[in-house]
Every structure is written in C-alpha cells, then in structure tokens.
Amino acid sequence: LQIYQHQRNVWEYRLNISDFHKKLIYYHFWELKDKDIEYLFTGFNCGTIVDNILSTIQEDYRDRGSLWVTPKDVIKNLHRHNLISESQLIPADEWSMKMFMDSLDSETMNRVLNSIEKKELSQLSKLEIKFANSYLQYIGKNQIQDNSSSIIDLSRYKNPINSHNDSQFTFQTDGESLQFTFLPASNTILDDNREYFTETTLKLGETTLKIEQDNFEIDSLYLYSMKSLTPWDSITNKLSKEININYINHFTEGLESYKAFNISGGVGLTKKIHNDIFIYSLVNGGVATHNRDIYLYGYPEFGAIIYELWSMKSVFQYQYIYNQDGSEAGYHNFDFEQSKFLGKSWKIGARFNMKQTKARSLEEFIFGITHYF
Hints:
Blueprint: H1 2-6, E1 10-15, H2 19-32, H3 46-54, H4 71-80, E2 84-90, H5 93-103, H6 106-118, H7 126-138, E3 168-173, E4 178-183, E5 186-187, E6 199-212, E7 215-229, E8 240-251, E9 257-274, E10 277-290, E11 293-308, E12 312-322, E13 330-342, E14 346-356, E15 361-372
Antiparallel strand pairs: 1-2, 3-4, 3-15, 4-6, 5-6, 6-7, 7-8, 8-9, 9-10, 10-11, 11-12, 12-13, 13-14, 14-15
C-alpha cells in the first residue's frame, strides 16, 4: 500500500545467518512483545531497535557507534559484516518508470507513448516494452504482454548501500574565522546524491558554530530544511520544492548581517539536461522576525548542479533577495561551491559567495572539509 500511495521503494534483504541466530532473534522479539518501549525520534527509533536486535548476531556488530541510527545505517551495518546473502527491490511505479526514462532519449519515449495510444506495439524493442509496461502500471492501465525472458535488475540502478552515511561534520575557514557544522542526520544538496532519485537536501537539527577572534556564536541553526529538485517530465509533472525552518543570517539594505528566525519555502522546476547536469529555478518567499519586527520577503532562485570527472561536483546558485529587514530593497546573492569526494567518508570543498547591491559588495572565499560517519 505504501508503494502505490506514497511512491516508496521497498527493499528486502535476506540475512546470511545460522539457524541458531535466527532462533536467538526470534526469542528476543518474544521477550519484547509485552514491553512498553518509549519511542524517541533521535535516541530510540525503529532503526535503533532493529539494530540492537541484530547486534546479537556478532560481538563486534556495533563496533561503529552512531549518534542517530537510521534504516540506512542498519543496512550498512549488515553489509559491512557480510550478513546479507541477497537483496530484492520492489520498486515504486514512478521510480521504475524513471529508471527506464534515464535509459531512453526523449524521441524514443515519445514514440513509445504514441505507440501505446495508437495500440501499435509490435515494433517495440524489449527495453521499450518494459518502459511501456512501467508507464501503463504508473497510470493504472493494463500492461501489454512481454514475451521477453530478460530480467532487468533494478536494484543496480540506485542502491542505498552505495550512498554516504547519514551524519556529517564540516570544518570551514575563510582565513579570518572558523566554522564547525554538525548535521546529525541526512544530506545536503552539496553531497554526492547520485544514489538518490532526485537532488535533495534534508537537514534535521544542523548547527553551525562560528569562532572569530574572541567571539563565539551560533552562526545558523536549521530545525528542518527540505529541498527536492525533482526533474520535471511530461508524464509525472512533478514540481521541485523547498521548505526551511531556521535561525540564520539576514541582511539589511546596506548588507549588514543580523540573526533572524525564518520560515520560508517555494516551488519551481528542475530540468535534467544530462545524467550529470541539472538546472533549476524556484520562486521562494518567507516570513522572518528580528527584534520583535516581522517582515515578509521573497527570493527567486536559479541554479545548476554538475557532476564531473574524478568524483567532483559543482553547485551554482543565484538568488535575488527582496525586502529582508522590511527595507523594500534587494540584493543579489551569488554562490558557487566546488567539491571533491574522497571515497564515501570525506569531502573537500571550496566556496565563493558574493552579495551585491548598487552601493556595496561582500565577497567571501571559504575552504572546508567534511567527514561522513
């Protein structure tokens, strides 16, 4: 039901464990059946209890502690200890169709869709038939007969085991100050997101501390931040979107910074012009408060994301931010970050940011290193 209503994939893993350990896990479940276990989103969630139960399999199963256990952490623990004998993906209709769309050019897809509409299916290739069936399943119509014996392993298309870990710590400097950022769970648009369906940001509790001379402060706090840059296509018609609840720097008309509590968001379109190149635009707006003043502001955003050779990634972002501080004035915000991924555990990056008005320009060069754990 979750697959069809919410378009979620389901991964099934068969464990490579002995009959003794299977019984041990069974008895452990039996012991817990009458226990009233308190659920804590960060401290004791569904991933935590499954990971605890699986730790009975091997003594060193949890040799890498995690501050926040997610379902992906559980699977990675099993994979690291060679406890997965086989896996199976039950894909959501949209996910399955998107995989085939990545393998076909737009001309071929349009020809297949026209063939379905005209019911002229005899000339379709094996791959085109599979795409046609995934499309028909997505729109809720009967599939066509597929006499092909070939099986496509969808689990090789995207796999959570190949993604980086959920928690990250970043150290940055601009030569005058030091910044320490801790993200307890999930990922940002600057990470290697190629194992995900879309380019995404999901921040839960991300905190940045800044040290400058004798001053120590919270530079930003993201209670919740979501950005989903879903490539638009004529079949799904999915919009990109963004939501932020945070405590961050805003700027006056003269580009003087101050801290504001902020709620913002928006919608837009993303275009995938190549497997490794995305461009997007969002129309965003927000409400913020500072010194008991409340103001509305807007910021249209345009950007590009490029995955390059040698495990590198470039992210370009431009915003025109209007009416921050209720000034009825605006400024341009240019941001560029170049990242180099060192395996799945480390990233080094360089960032350039420029804020500009007719009267003033602020430029900042930042160098940083990120550790995923």
